[in-house]
Structure formats: C-alpha cells, structure tokens
Design brief:
186 residues; mainly alpha; 7 helices; 0% strand; globular
Length: 186
C-alpha cells in the first residue's frame, strides 16, 4: 500500500530554490561542460534503476532527457540553448545537496524538485527535442535503424507539416466564410 504526500512550494520556497540554482551556476562556471554532464550522469548511475521512489524516478527520466539533448550528435543543440541546459545541470555538480542523498526515501527529494523547476524553465527546448526524437524514431522505423537523421531534416519536415496545417486551416476558414456568405444572401 502506497502513501501519497502532497505539498506546495510557495513563492518564497521557489525563490530559495532559484537562489540555490544561481549559486550552483556560479560554481559551475568554473567547471568544464563535460564534467557537469558527467556529474549528472554519475547521479543517475549511483541511484540505479530501482534506487529511488517513483516520484523521483519520473524526474530522473527528465534528467536523462536533458543530458541527451546535450550529447545527441544528430540534434546539435545551438550553443545558447546548450548553455541553458548546462546551467540547469549545474546543480548536480554541487557535492552538497540540500537533503543528503543517503537519507532513504527523501534523499533525492531536493533533486526531484530541482529537476521539476529546470524542466519548467526549459519547457520549449524539451518539447522541441522530444518532437525531434519522435520524428527520428518514426524515420528510423520506416527507413531502417541506421538511417541518420539531422536537425535540418527535422526542421524541414516540421516546416512542411506546419505549412500544410496552415493551408488546411486557411481552406477550412475560406469554406466557413463562403458558407456564412451564402446564408447571408438567402
């Protein structure tokens, strides 16, 4: 039998977490980007697949996604966005947590909260990367597992999809206006 615990962070709490994140970013400015990524990966490895409560495990999947955004050669995240993701991962390069990871059940709570805040901040980058990953999986499923897929391919495909949707909506709107005009004439 599980136990559900719900809590809400108010603006003061969020400011506190943002201050901690800012301090981590300042510290991380002196750390090589590959070391920041390696530290975040070490956290995932140290926890292991069954080493965290479900609410933490869900957020760790998001952490894997953020690391993937940086390491994915086919995605080639532009430098400005890569820096935003690195700054977000900087918290995990800090050796001291708010709550020591060794405390069973609660040790990763601060990490889970930080991941949740990071994902809200990087919402658009995450959505774009997930869209790209879905596109790549679809292409590889249809064209073969070893098919290379670039960000440019995805952008071209996405542009074509959006333009097609735009034309469909315009046609639908014209048809609607035409029907409305006919009714007015009756």
């Amino acid at each position: 039998m599980g136990l559900r615990v719900t809590f809400e962070l108010d603006d003061k709490d969020l400011r506190h977490f943002r201050l901690i994140m800012q301090q981590a970013r300042t510290t991380a400015a002196r750390i090589a980007p590959e070391d920041i990524v390696a530290t975040a990966e070490e956290l995932l490895t140290s926890i292991g697949p069954d080493g965290a409560p479900a609410f933490v495990a869900e957020r760790l999947q998001k952490l894997r996604l953020l690391i993937g955004m940086l390491k994915d050669i086919e995605w080639r995240l532009p430098q400005a966005e890569a820096n935003r993701v690195l700054n977000a991962l900087a918290y995990f390069a800090e050796p001291e947590d708010l709550i020591p990871d060794s405390i069973p059940g609660l040790g990763f709570l601060d990490d889970a909260i930080m991941i949740e805040l990071i994902c809200r901040e990087l919402k658009h980058e995450i959505e774009a990367y997930q869209d790209f990953c879905d596109y790549r999986a679809r292409i590889r499923r249809d064209s073969g597992r070893n098919t290379r897929v670039s960000r440019d391919d995805w952008l071209e495909n996405r542009r074509a999809e959006l333009q097609s949707r735009m034309r469909r909506r315009k046609r639908k709107e014209r048809v609607g206006k035409a029907r409305h005009s006919i009714r007015l004439l009756r």
